[in-house]
TrEMBL record:
Keywords: Disulfide bond, Metal-binding, Signal, Zinc. This is Leukocyte cell derived chemotaxin 2. GO terms for molecular function: metal ion binding. The lineage of its organism: Eukaryota, Metazoa, Chordata, Craniata, Vertebrata. InterPro entries: Dup_hybrid_motif, LECT2. Coiled coil: none annotated.
Amino acid sequence: TKAITTEQHKTLEYSSSGVNGLHTVCVCVSAAVLWVCDGVKFGQLCKGNPNNRRRTSDRWGEGHYGAGRGNRRHQGLDIECRDGSTVYAPFDVTLVRKVIVYKDPEKKKTAINEGIQMRGEGLCFNLFYVRPDKTSGFVRKGARIGTMLPMQRVYPGITSHVHVQMCDRSNPTRYF
């Protein structure tokens, strides 16, 4: 599957037999792109958690997408990761930018107020509570991208975790 450039799109338009021909080509391309994304699975995110074990329930709540958070819903999926552990690229990715997790953090939350946004395999996603080694460039699957921040310092007794949030805030669970 490959993206069609504007020039290629014009060529298809002129070589098609009409509106129906162009429509069919566009649907096939869209379906192929969706199929690629649907087959994506995250590789190991955190040292010591080769199967991406999910945070379930602890005294601070639950880690699944949609879990209650007072008057809002959890918009990501929590993958267990010990404080200070190495965090890896789940597949070949392009690092987009550093992310600030909390817009107005309480003083104690500054210890975990970092993350990284990346793109790969047709997806855009953020990893929260990670201090990135760098914030741009290409990284191969399994390469180190950063370090898990000290979650226990902020939330004693929580299952320390990397929070995976899609850029469009859709449910990431199907990729695990």
